[in-house]
Amino acid sequence: MAEDGLPVAGISARTGIPVSALSRYLPALEELGIVQREPDGTYRVTPLGRLLRRDTGSLHGQALMAGDEYYGAWQELDHCLLTGESAFHARHGSGLWEMAARKPDLAASFARTMRWNSARALSDILALYDFTAARLVVDLGAGDATLLCGVLARYPKARGLAVEQGSMSAHAAATVREAGLDQRCAVRTDDIRRAVPSGGDVYILKSVIHNWPDAAAVDILRTVRDAMPAGSQLLLVEKAHDSADPQAALRDLTMMVLFASQDRTPAEYHALLTRAGFTPSAPRLGSSGMCLIPATADNARCEPGDQPRPEGDSGGPEPAGRAPTTHRENEELE
Ligand SMILES: C[S@@+](CC[C@H](N)C(=O)[O-])C[C@H]1O[C@@H](n2cnc3c(N)ncnc32)[C@H](O)[C@@H]1O
Questions:
Q1: Known catalytic residues?
Q2: Which residues contact 14 (CB under 8 A, 6 or more apart)?
């Protein structure tokens, strides 16, 4: 729907929905605050309704997923509560990322949602961390690369590398192209549980770790730590769980339903980083509730391109199937 008022017949012509059905549907949408009826009988979209428009930078993708794959997952809430297993997996027989690999529409909806989330978090992250010294910023699980492009736009001397799994990397590449950053930013398709590129000065993990339960989260963090050259930093960026926030409990439960994971407090993220062998700094809190924790890999002994093995890694045996961390130079940019 256009923002200007449209008569019901005009909306019918655009949507193919009969006027008789619209004259019952639109009043219901008005009750929800999504459209507003004008005195002349036309309808306009409210600011709330505008968030559902298809444009990038909206909640359109989130709404599609909520009404379809996520909705199905919530129907398995009892299974999730009783077993601690992901309701999404119980309902659909695979995880969200595997399903996105099979369903391009789902991947596109997810990419749009990540664009919305990262665009909102960007100013907080830029206020919380100075990237001036970073020559190469590596964003792991970069989503559609909106955050990385925003950082590169602010720091024109920095280069970027977005690492994403197969269903999302094309969306990241599209964002990089749209931003005109092809010459400064590469996109690599990879599984960060198995391989993380070395050569970065700053590594970002934003809104990735909250998708994983503790053991898997620590495993990913160790893989990142193993790849990081001496002197580099990891920025762990997550929405801080705050029980005083009226949406905190629902957000946390959503992580349980979708991923069998959890939201965490800044102290809990700090502890995870320590468990994975990092030396984290004090958490920094942004005005939007984002928490950024810079961390150095205290076992890093290598220069970019070396093959580091952490000393004194007391974290137990390597998990089955975990490939040796790769320490490839950032060949895409060279
Ligand atoms: C919640 S999203 C966050 C995306 C982005 N960092 C942001 O904040 O907009 C988590 C991202 O992790 C990616 N991801 C999940 N598992 C991955 C894996 N094994 N390797 C690489 N990326 C992965 C997903 O594709 C998804 O884009």
A1: 210
A2: 1, 6
Q: How far is the CA of 113 from the centre of ligand 1 (A)?
A: 12
CA 288 to chain centroid = 16
Question: Is it the case that residue 329 has pLDDT exceeding 50?
Answer: no
The pLDDT, as a whole number, for residue 260 is: 97
Confidence of residue 56 (pLDDT cuts 50, 70, 90): low
Burial of residue 253 (number of CB atoms within 10 Å: 0-12, 13-18, 19+): middle
> Which distant-in-sequence residues (6+ apart) come within 8 Å of 312 by Cβ?
299
Gap between the Cα atoms of 273 and 276, Å rounded: 5
What is the spatial distance between Cα 319 and Cα 136, in angstroms, rounded to a whole number?
29
Q: How many CB atoms lie within 10 A of CB 334?
A: 7
End-to-end CA distance of the chain: 46
| Residue in 76, 52, 77, 47 with CA at minimum distance from that of residue 64 | 52
At 274 the pLDDT is: 97
From residue 65, alpha-carbon distances to 96, 105, 258, 289 in Å are 11, 10, 12, 24
Of 107 and 332, the structure prediction assigns the larger pLDDT to: 107
Is the model's pLDDT at 218 over the cut of 60?
Answer: yes
118 lines ligand 1 (CB under 6 A): yes
Confirm or reject: Cβ of 193 under 6 Å from ligand 1: yes
Buried b (16+ CB within 10 A) or exposed e, 229-241: beebbbbbbbbbb
For residue 266, CA distances in Å to 6, 249, 260 come to: 48, 16, 19
Which protein residue has the closest C-alpha to ligand 1 atom 10? 208
pTM equals: 0.86
Ligand 1 contacts CB of residue 86 (under 6 A): no
Give the number of residues written for the chain.
334
* Side chain identity at residue 153, one-letter code: A
